[in-house]
Design goal:
Layout: H1 3-6, H2 11-39, H3 43-52, H4 66-78, H5 86-158, H6 164-236, H7 244-255, H8 259-270, E1 312-314, E2 317-319, H9 340-377, H10 385-416, H11 426-436, E3 437-441, E4 447-452, H12 464-467, E5 476-478, E6 489-491, E7 500-501, E8 511-515, E9 534-539, E10 546-553, E11 557-564, E12 568-572
Antiparallel strand pairs: 1-2, 3-4, 4-7, 5-6, 8-9, 8-12, 9-10, 10-11
Biased composition (Polar residues): 419-449
Main location: membrane
Region (Disordered): 418-492
């Protein structure tokens, strides 16, 4: 369990968390100082102190840490102490306050040093990536200039009106431009290698070392709080036997602190589930096929961590991606805007809450039913009709709670199916396609595409599966390839309140890609590919790690599906 491995992409959150930890340590120090001032006064002011330091609403999420929980227990124990407190004031001042001040000062200095190192590492990586980009642009310019010089030399060599000296001059220019292109190419390759090495070292060695050091500081702070709480309790134990029971509770509160458990909770709270970016591939411009010598060639590499387009690019235009998952975009009741780990956690908590409410409502209904039976057996005790309305209302509430429970269990089931490859958001994309974008293949290679987009209502929860089935008659379309002899028809039985976007024509390819590694399709919506296979790109990576491709198939037209972006090398059309 290491922050450097588990939280490699949470630099800002860890900086905030460690700062909050030190602030919490200072808060505890202030608590002791205020307590010392109140120790000489009566129990009323002591209880007021406890009230002032009760956790605020905005800090409720931090109460899951064992140190915060121990602090709350300490406050509860102190509320029972209402006697003479002046005796322990001096001991608390010497043993607790000075220790916290020294620890807080040390933690702040070491934290500042760690964050400074992290900032320098980020700046170094950014500088190297900028140098790589400049080298790439220089290489592109030099390559175009060399191509132009070669073309000029060929024209001069074929021009009989030019003297040999002029032809020789064009030849020298061509040679110089070719040399400049080769030099720029070597510089680009060198910068690329440096960038990949630095990026690998940054995410796997240097930055994890900084994060592990921050973890050590945070655990040191947590251990310090535990020791201070126990020490304060030890001071209290010498006051009077009458408060011994309270002191035992405080000791237990301090001993309940577990720095490893707190570190794990930090991971559980901030872990995104994504993986570090891979190496940047080398792009050799000299191997590109020039379609028109008068046009410039553009080379782009699609990366999930650097190029993200919010939408589907088709036929040189951008339109909003639609699908069944966009149903939850307005209210986010399925927590789809959270990372996978956090989403499952929220859904499990919601299901537990609903189950508890169902249990309570069931008990209330059973009580009403028993009351009704008693009234029916003995009318002198009451009129059974007065219970009938309450019983119907209880049944209605119970039915609604069960429907909500079933709905959130469905959300949780879908969420558990999401991390199919590397625990990143690409599963959301595949899952969205399986639910909201249905493709069926005809013998002539044509496809059926159906996109659903609309607002979700709880009453529609049970109709999600049936709305996408062929038997429902919703959103069906038939598209044929040109010259296949089959027409295109579209029948829509939905009213104006439905929101659908149907693509009548196949998506135009955005470029080509080559498989760097073999891939076996293990989930619905993905297709297998062999190493070195050439495919068409019809939808670029949208930040979830998957790219939609098309394979030309002579038997049935084509095959479409998703493949991991890190497994392919893409070249988009200009």
């Amino acid at each position: 369990m290491s922050w450097g491995i588990e939280l490699w992409d949470q630099y800002d959150n860890l900086a905030i968390h460690t700062n909050k930890g030190i602030e919490f340590l200072d808060k505890y120090a202030n608590f002791i100082r205020d307590r010392l001032a109140i120790e000489t006064e009566y129990a009323a002011k002591l209880r007021r102190l406890v009230k002032n330091y009760q956790p605020k609403k905005k800090e409720e999420e931090d109460n899951e840490f064992t140190s915060w929980q121990a602090f709350r227990k300490v406050l509860n124990e102190i509320s029972d102490l209402a006697g003479q407190r002046e005796v322990v004031a001096e001991s608390l001042q010497l043993q607790i306050i000075q220790g916290i001040s020294l620890l807080s000062k040390t933690l702040r200095e070491e934290r500042k040093k760690c964050l400074s190192n992290g900032t320098i590492l980020h700046q170094n990586l950014t500088t190297q990536l900028a140098a790589l980009e400049r080298a790439k642009r220089n290489y592109e310019k030099a390559y175009r200039d060399s191509e132009k010089a070669v073309e000029n030399y060929k024209k001069a060599d074929m021009d009989l009106n030019l003297s040999r000296a002029e032809v020789e001059r064009y030849k020298n220019i061509m040679t110089a431009k070719i040399q400049q292109s080769d030099d720029a190419k070597n510089e680009y390759a060198n910068q690329l290698q440096k960038s990949n090495n630095l990026q690998q070292q940054h995410y796997h060695e240097l930055l994890p070392e900084v994060f592990n050091r921050l973890q050590e500081l945070d655990e040191k702070r947590t251990r310090g709080i535990r020791e201070f709480i126990i020490s304060a309790a030890d001071v209290e134990s010498s006051v009077a036997p009458i408060i011994a029971r309270c002191l035992e509770g405080m000791v237990k509160a301090g001993e309940s602190i577990n720095e490893k458990e707190d570190s794990y909770k930090v991971i559980e709270r901030y872990q995104s589930g994504f993986t570090p970016p891979g190496d940047i591939p080398f792009e050799d411009l000299s191997k590109m096929d020039t379609l028109d010598t008068s046009q410039e060639s553009h080379y782009n590499h699609v990366q999930s961590s650097h190029l993200t387009v919010k939408g589907t690019i088709s036929a040189n235009k951008i339109k909003k991606r639609v699908g069944i998952f966009n149903i939850f975009g307005s209210n986010k009741e399925d927590f789809s805007d959270l990372p996978p780990n956090q989403r499952r956690k929220k859904l499990q908590a919601k299901i537990a809450e609903l189950q508890q409410k169902i249990q309570q409502e069931t008990a209330a209904r059973d009580g009403l039913m028993k009351m009704k039976v008693v009234y029916e057996a003995n009318s002198s005790l009451g009129n059974p009709m007065t219970v009938e309305g309450q019983l119907n209302e209880s049944e209605h509430k119970l039915e609604k709670l069960k429907m909500d429970l079933k709905k959130y269990q469905g959300y949780l089931e879908k969420a558990n199916q999401i991390p199919i490859a590397n625990n990143s958001p690409q599963a959301n994309r595949t899952h969205s396609m399986n639910n909201g974008h249905r493709s069926s293949r005809h013998s002539n290679g044509s496809t059926e595409d159906n996109n659903f987009d609309g607002d979700f209502h709880p009453d529609d929860a049970g109709s999600l599966s049936s709305s996408a089935s062929p038997e429902s008659g919703l959103g069906t379309s038939h598209t044929s390839l040109p010259g296949s002899g089959h027409g295109s028809t579209h029948e829509n039985a939905i009213g104006e309140d439905a929101y659908y976007e149907t693509e009548m024509e196949p998506l135009q390819p955005l470029g080509t890609c080559r498989a760097l590694y073999p891939f076996e399709a293990t989930s619905e919506g993905s297709i297998p590919m062999n190493e070195g296979e050439e495919l068409q790109v019809i939808e670029i990576d949208q930040g979830d790690g998957w790219t939609r491709v098309r394979r030309i198939n002579n038997t049935n037209g084509w095959d479409e599906g998703f493949v991991p972006t890190s497994y392919i090398e893409c070249t988009l059309y200009a």
